Amino acid sequence: MPELEESVEHKSQSLPRLVVLLHWLLASSIFFLFVSSWWMLSLPLPSAEFTYRELPFQLHKNIGITLFAAVITMAAMRVRSLLREASSSQGWLQRLAVWDHILLYTLLTVCCLSGYMSSSYSGWTTTLWWLVDIPSMSAENDDLNILFSEVHLWSCWALLGLLLLHIGAAIYHGIGNDGAIDKMFRLR
Amino acid sequence: MENEIAKANVSWLAPVFVLFGLLLLASHSNELLKQTVIGPGSSADLGFAADCREDELEEEQLSLEECQLMVSNVRIILSSSPQWFRPYQLILSSMGVAATLFSLVTAFGLINRQRPPLRLAIVSIAMLLIVDVAGFVAALNTGPLLRAQYLWPLLLWICIHLCMLVAVIRFGQQDEMDS
């Protein structure tokens, strides 16, 4: 009987397999996007001769668009449970955890959308994974490009700060071995 | 009781291993991208002057000097790289990506398992350490400009992986003693 109780409790705590997979896909993509973007912005400015930025930028945009789809899917799957947790959470730590997740989803969305808008107004085309042309919002517009670049930059810095909080919390729960992070490490 | 403590200790290693694993995956993937993009015979190597248009400089918030130095930065990489360095780095970073993915899978198995796969974890971290050392030795045999870029981060990774390896070996010994 205790075994049954344990499995019921574990099942109620477990997350859908897709959410776990998307979580780790997002985690690995985000770290890569940060590292590669810091490096790619040190490459020579694009011109007819200098095409060093072409591949890294296309890859950055492709991963960003894919990440946006993953964030939306994950948020849609978790919105109910997050709202339920937000209304029933007791104690500042629990409330902080709920708001950390809500803010993470929001910032990820803002980062992806501002990146797309900036690229859209820059006049450069985007071909998703070198297969499908993504339409631009409008014609080239330098002012809007700079504006959305700034939004992209600052929302990404804010995201990095929030991620550090998220990682710190995961390690805090890991050291406490309270089972809070187990659900993100199991595909069932 | 002792076994429970050992299990708890192994469990907290999992998020730490995964965190470092994700950072390392990003690092090796970026190195792969870097070596793919910057190749000998490309425009910086052929001596083309930097194309620094005023509107681009304003957009990127760069000075003219910075824009010109971006081309020099690529030249530094190309001229300090011996002929063997690029193919070597391409293979090594691909191996690094594979070893990191393997270590991530084993790290997932460490959390609250009855029998955490400690031997597998030892193998995967040893593989990461071998990749680090191979990278370090390669960087050591390049010019001073590349050594300055590569050696310090590689030394940090060697220390991180050494700590991880020692921790897993110690937990493995504890686990064997308990069983």
Automatic annotation (TrEMBL), chain A:
One of its GO terms (biological process) is respiratory electron transport chain. One of its GO terms (cellular component) is plasma membrane. Residues 16-186 form the Cytochrome b561 bacterial/Ni-hydrogenase domain. Signal peptide: none annotated. It is found in: Cell membrane. Its cofactor is heme b. It holds the Pfam family Ni_hydr_CYTB. The keyword Transmembrane applies. It is a multi-pass membrane protein. InterPro entries: Cyt_b561_bac/Ni-Hgenase, Cytochrome_b561_oxidase, Di-haem_cyt_TM. The chain crosses the membrane at residues 21-41, 61-81, 102-131, 151-175. Keywords: Cell membrane, Electron transport, Heme, Iron, Membrane, Metal-binding, Transmembrane, Transmembrane helix, Transport. One of its GO terms (molecular function) is heme binding. It comes from the Bacteria. PANTHER family: CYTOCHROME B561, CYTOCHROME B561 BACTERIAL_NI-HYDROGENASE DOMAIN-CONTAINING PROTEIN. Belongs to the cytochrome b561 family. This is Cytochrome b. It comes from SAR86 cluster bacterium. The lineage of its organism: Bacteria, Pseudomonadati, Pseudomonadota, Gammaproteobacteria, SAR86 cluster.
Automatic annotation (TrEMBL), chain B:
The keyword Transmembrane helix applies. It comes from the Bacteria. Keywords: Membrane, Transmembrane, Transmembrane helix. The chain crosses the membrane at residues 12-29, 88-111, 118-138, 150-169. This is Uncharacterized protein. It comes from SAR86 cluster bacterium.
